[in-house]
Amino acid sequence: MAKWIDNKTVIITGASSGIGKMLAERLIKERNCTVIGVARSEKKMVSFVEELGDYASKFKYKLFDVSSYDNWQNFHDWLVENNIQPDVLINNAGVLPRFDRLVNYTKEEIDESINIDFYSAAYSSKIMLPLLMKSETPAIVNVASSAALMALGGTSMYSASKAAVKGLTEAMREELRGEAYIGLVCPGFTKTDIFRNQGATDGMNLINMVSTPCHKAVNKILKGILRKKSYIVVGFDGNAMGRFNRLMPVQGSRLFSSVIKAFKIDLFASTFGYEKKSAKKDK
């Protein structure tokens, strides 16, 4: 079973950095896949092509906003026109809004989270599925988050959108049972640039301490995909959040939030209503 993905054509969103980029590289170099990366930064994509060196011919990229339905339809049409048969779709693109209370988010922040974190997976799955089903090994893998397993204070929009991805994937898995491989990935904190929107830097050392190195997360994800696992949880924190939420759906979330609150780091100051350390220093 581990060889089912060898020599396949794989579409990966969010392929310009982090998990998406590393997955693309591993699939190209280790499984001889042709990867079509989807992202918005041409600079990053060109740099990745250069990094691939002799493997560059196995990678193509398309630049578009994955939260647009029309963009996915245009991409689908481009594949058909160029006689490209995709076998696997990995919806990895995502954005993590700043940690804050729901009431403090702007409409734009709410829209961005739902559009990129959820609608991109829903749109791409709906539009690409008929084409994928023409493959001998059709597959869709959606990357959600441990935030879909347990919602923490300060993550309302991210938890909601990733929980929606989880529900979407689980329903698709039953709808397509026996017809296609549908996988759900729920990583915990991972050392990528997903924290770029947070603003405050105080607390990143703590985040890094509990975060899984990107290469280890990708190794776990790739092993799960090769085995066609339906449910792939990554990281100590991800597994812990899943277990606690099953055992204590209310108290578990409260416990994790209390631990975060106890450190009083600037990243969560607005969420839990205490003064930032940086503000105290300025007085």
Can you summarize this structure?
The chain is of the alpha/beta class. The protein has helices at 18-31, 42-52, 69-81, 107-132, 156-175, 204-210, 214-226, 236-247, 251-262, 269-272, 277-282; strands at 9-13, 34-39, 59-63, 88-91, 139-143, 181-187, 231-234.
The percent range for helix content is 40-55%
CATH topology heading? Rossmann fold
- Structural shape: globular
The number of distinct β-strands equals 7
Any idea how many domains? Answer: 1
**N-C termini distance:** 62 Å
Uncertain residue ranges: none
How are the strands of the biggest sheet laid out side by side? 3-2-1-4-5-6-7
Order of helices and strands: EHEHEHEHEHEHHEHHHH
Approximately what portion of the residues adopt beta-strand conformation? 5-15%
CATH superfamily heading: NAD(P)-binding Rossmann-like Domain
> Structural class, please?
alpha/beta
Mean pLDDT: 91
Word description of this protein:
It is a single chain. With 283 residues, the chain is α/β, with parallel strands linked by helices. The protein has one domain (9-282): 3-Layer(aba) Sandwich (Rossmann fold), CATH 3.40.50.720. Helix content is 49%, strand content 13%. It contains eleven helices and seven strands. The protein has helices spanning 18-31, 42-52, 69-81, 107-132, 156-175, 204-210, 214-226, 236-247, 251-262, 269-272, 277-282, and strands at residues 9-13, 34-39, 59-63, 88-91, 139-143, 181-187, 231-234. Strand 5, helix 5 (156-175) and strand 6 form a beta-alpha-beta unit. The radius of gyration is 19 Å and the shape is globular. The mean pLDDT is 91.
